[in-house]
Design goal:
By secondary structure, the protein is mainly beta. It contains 1 helix and 12 strands.
């Protein structure tokens, strides 16, 4: 009986560690791009006051080139296959279209488990005409082999778009 109680307490602690918000560093871009990874050569993703929804700063993607796309990612967090991960955030499009937020999953060897090739990406495209701040939620189940999860903001290479993002939350549930 004593061991059963101990096991139940440990199981409860483990489920608590794997449920809830993950500790995104700088989810509202108040400290610039600190805690976010910008793709090499990406000069179209910047933190500016005009992109702020709830505080002083927000992420602006101003992609006016039809040959390149943006790429801004959060840090990678430990993740577990079969768990549901969600990204909550706010966005608005100032002009154009062609931008999405992605849930990215990797294995222990740093291989991406979801991609465009097998068409199993987990993404939410910001709808054209979303001119007012709008809350969005993208959720998906981590595929077999998942060890890490990340957020990725990406404007499509062939599109032109000016868009704002703010107040990201990455969470996991049972």
């Amino acid at each position: 009986m004593k061991y059963s109680l101990c096991f139940l307490l440990l199981a409860g602690l483990a489920s608590t560690l794997f449920a809830g918000d993950l500790p995104l560093l700088n989810p509202g871009f108040e400290d610039g791009l600190n805690g976010w990874i910008v793709a090499p050569g990406d000069s179209i993703s910047v933190v500016v006051p005009e992109a702020a929804r709830s505080s002083r700063m927000g992420l602006q993607v101003n992609d006016q080139d039809s040959t390149v796309g943006s790429g801004v990612a959060s840090a990678w967090f430990p993740a577990k296959a079969g768990k549901t991960y969600a990204i909550d955030f706010w966005s608005r499009i100032k002009s154009g279209d062609g931008v999405a937020v992605y849930l990215r999953f990797r294995d222990t060897k740093n291989h991406t488990l979801t991609s465009a090739q097998p068409k199993d990406e987990q993404l939410l495209t910001i709808p054209k005409g979303t001119t007012q701040w709008t809350p969005f939620r993208l959720s998906g189940v981590a595929p077999e082999g998942t060890a890490f999860v990340s957020i990725w903001v990406h404007s499509f290479s062939k599109n032109k778009v000016l868009v704002h993002f703010d107040d990201f939350v990455l969470s996991v549930s049972e």
